Prior knowledge:
single chain; 474 residues; alpha/beta; Rossmann fold; pyruvate-formate lyase- activating enzyme; CATH 2.40.50.140; 6-stranded parallel sheet; 5-stranded mixed barrel; 22% strand; globular; binds S-adenosyl-L-homocysteine; binds iron/sulfur cluster; binds FE3-S4 cluster
Amino acid sequence: xxxxxxxxxxxxxxxxxxxxxxxxxxxxxxxxxxxxxxxxxxxxxxxxxxxxxxxxxxxxxxxxxxxxxxxxxxxxxxxxxxxxxxxxxxxxxxxxxxxxxxxxxxxxxxxxxxxxxxxxxxxxxxxxxxxxxxxxxxxxxxxxxxxxxxxxxxxxxxxxxxxxxxxxxxxxxxxxxxxxxxxxxxxxxxxxxxxxxxxxxxxxxxxxxxxxxxxxxxxxxxxxxxxxxxxxxxxxxxxxxxxxxxxxxxxxxxxxxxxxxxxxxxxxxxxxxxxxxxxxxxxxxxxxxxxxxxxxxxxxxxxxxxxxxxxxxxxxxxxxxxxxxxxxxxxxxxxxxxxxxxxxxxxxxxxxxxxxxxxxxxxxxxxxxxxxxxxxxxxxxxxxxxxxxxxxxxxxxxxxxxxxxxxxxxxxxxxxxxxxxxxxxxxxxxxxxxxxxxxxxxxxxxxxxxxxxxxxxxxxxxxxxxxxxxxxxx
Length: 474
Ligand code: SAH
Ligand code: SF4
Ligand code: F3S
C-alpha cells in the first residue's frame, strides 16, 4: 500500500497568508493529502512565512532549525518554505537551512503540488519565486505575482461560516519602512466577476461572512472596456448574494477613504460598521519620513467624515513606534491622536528595519530598543483603557452576533457541553463570549451584554425573560 500522504503546515503573518495556506491545503487535498498536527508524522512540512518584521522571520528560522535532526533521520520528508520570506530571501534560505527542499514565493503557490512531486521524484531542491520589482517590464512582473484563488477548503478556515476573499494583490504605496511591495509585487485588482463568483460559491458552501482582502483594499480599482469598478461598486454587487449576511474589508489606506465607500457602508445593511484604517503615527514629521502620503490633519479630517457618515462605526488602527528619528515629542503626538480618535483597538509595533526598503537604505534605525519598548507599552496602555471604556459603554445593549464556535477557554479545557462557553462577533467586530450551545455555531443570535473587558464582551442569550428584565432595569 502506498504511504499515506500527510501535510503539516504552519502559517504566520497577515490574513493574506491565512488565505494562501487555505488554498495550498485545498490543492494538496486534491492530491490525496490529509492534515496532521505533528511534523514527525508528516510526509510534507510547509511553512507559510512573513517578512514584515524581523521577529516573524526569526520565528520561522528557529522552527526550521528544530527540523534539522528530523530531516537527517527521515530524508524523504519534504520541507518547504513558502510566502513572503521565501520571496525575500530566496536561495539564501539554503545557507541557514540547507536541508530545505522547496522555496516558493507567494505568487507561485499554485505550483506547490508539482514542486513536491519533483522533489520526491529525485529532481533535487526547487526554487520558484516571482520577479523582483525591477527585473522586467511591469506586465511581466505583474504576471509573475498573480495568485491562484478559486480552490477553497472550508476545513482550513478558523470557522466555516467565515471566509476571506482576495480582491487585490500587491501594493504600490512603498511606505519607507515596509517590505510588502517588494515581496507581494505591484498592486493589481482582481476582476469583479471572479470575486462575485467566488463569493457565490462560498455562500453555497454555507459561508455567511466574507472579508475582502487587499493591502490597501479601498484603493481597489478594476478597469475594463472603459468601465471602472471601485470597492463601493463591488460591495453593492456582493450585497445581492443570498446567504451572505456580513461583508467586511481590510486594510484601508487613509487617503483612499472616499465618500462613496463610506456611504456604501452606511447604506448596505450587510456591510459591517467596522473600518480598519492604520494611521501609523500622529506626527507629521514621522508620516513624511514614512512616506505615508497624508498629514495628521488629513487623517483627522477623514476620521470626522467617518464619524459624520457612520456614527456607530468601530474604527481600528495600526501604529509603529520608534521609527527613524522619532522623538519624545513625535511620540506624544501619536498618544494624542489615539486619545482623540478613540479607536476600537490598535495594533502597535516597534519599528523593525527591513533590508531592501527605502527606510533601511536612507534612514538610521536610531531609537533605542528600550525607548521602543517603553513607547509601545505606554501607547498600548492608553489604547487598552479606551477599548475598555468603549466596551463598557455597551453593557446593557442587545447585539446580534455571528457565532464562531466554542471559546478558546472551552476548547483548552476540553469542555463538551451541553452548555458551553461560545464565542462570536458583533457586526462591529467585537468579540463576545456567552454560555450557549454548540448547535448555535454559524448562526446569528441576539445577546445582551452584561460585562466588558478591553478585548472581550460578556453576553447572555436573549430570551423573552431577559428582554423583560432589561425593560425593568431601564
Ligand atoms: N497594508 C496594510 C498593512 C501592512 S503590514 C496597511 O497599509 O495598513 C501591517 C502593519 O505592520 C502595518 O500597518 C504597520 O503598522 C506594521 N509594519 C509594517 N512594516 C513594519 C516594520 N518594518 N516594522 C514594524 N512594523 C511594521
Ligand atoms: Fe506596506 Fe504601506 Fe503598502 Fe501597507 S500601504 S502594505 S504599510 S507599503
Ligand atoms: Fe507578512 Fe507578507 Fe502579510 S510580509 S504581513 S505575510 S503580505
